[in-house]
Design brief:
This protein has about 250 residues and is an all-alpha fold. Helices cover about 70% and strands about 0% of the residues. Helix 7 packs antiparallel against helix 8. The radius of gyration is 19 Å and the shape is globular.
Length: about 250
């Protein structure tokens, strides 16, 4: 597997990230090969453009080639990998236009969820969201990005659940894979990561105040602010590639 040549602000942290599952039991690893590879891509350990070597993957995950090949097929179907004729599959690039579309859709969904949740939330549920926020802050202070990301996802999904709208929850889950990768990437910049903590506090405060308008607004702005950072970075990279001497 080749690593990306493009440095990221937290590349060192990502390089130290362990495999998602330390359990080496053969049966469980067979069943989780897809999840292993998916996590490596979503978290940037396998960066856009990285080529996958089946033999190395088998050694890293601890399974035979059959589950690895099946996992690769699944991830190609999900759009996380690109299959190339007579070559190893590569990790798909993050697409600027898709992320722009995600901003419009996800900000609307989460904003609506915030409005619905704030209108009916109770103290116990607010405390649950508050605990997840505290966990995020703790992981942030320790530079534990993978653990922060898990708490962050739980924070957002809990608010989605508190909307008590089954269709909204269903749509959010359908988008979760694409949102996960974009959200994780947006936190690779320390300044954005710090700002995200502040925005989560605003969301929690609005929810605790049972204010639907402020909660919805805080969530919409949070989604837009986070993914807009990623869009700007990808556009700058694309423009740089176009203007490079090699592109002429």
């Amino acid at each position: 597997m080749s690593a990306s040549r493009d440095p990221t602000p937290l590349a060192t942290l990502l390089a130290k990230m362990p495999l998602p599952d330390a359990d080496r039991r053969k049966g469980r690893l067979h069943g989780n090969a897809v999840q292993h590879l998916r996590n490596l891509i979503v978290t940037g350990v396998l960066a856009p453009g990285a080529r996958l070597n089946e033999r190395e993957l088998c050694e890293q995950i601890g399974v035979s080639r059959t589950p690895v090949r099946e996992a690769i097929k699944t991830l190609v179907q999900e759009g996380l990998l690109r299959a190339l004729p007579n070559q190893s599959p590569v990790v798909s690039d993050l697409d600027v236009e898709e992320i722009k579309a995600l901003i419009d859709v996800v900000s609307t969904i989460e904003g609506l969820a915030g409005e619905l949740a704030a209108a009916q939330v109770d103290g116990e549920a607010v405390a649950e969201v508050g605990l997840l926020h505290y966990q995020m802050m703790l992981h942030h202070t320790r530079d534990e990005l993978p653990a922060y990301f898990e708490a962050n996802k739980a924070f957002h999904r809990r608010i989605i659940e508190l909307s008590r709208n089954s269709v909204l929850i269903w749509v959010w889950d359908l988008l979760a894979l694409r949102v996960d990768r974009a959200r994780y990437s947006s936190n690779l910049w320390p300044a954005r990561w710090e700002k995200a903590i502040q925005e989560h506090q605003l969301i929690l405060d609005a929810l605790a105040a049972r204010d639907p308008v402020l909660t919805g607004q805080a969530l919409r702005e949070h989604v837009r602010n986070g993914l807009a950072v990623l869009v700007s970075a990808l556009q700058a990279k694309r423009d740089g590639a176009r203007n490079s001497p090699q592109a002429d």
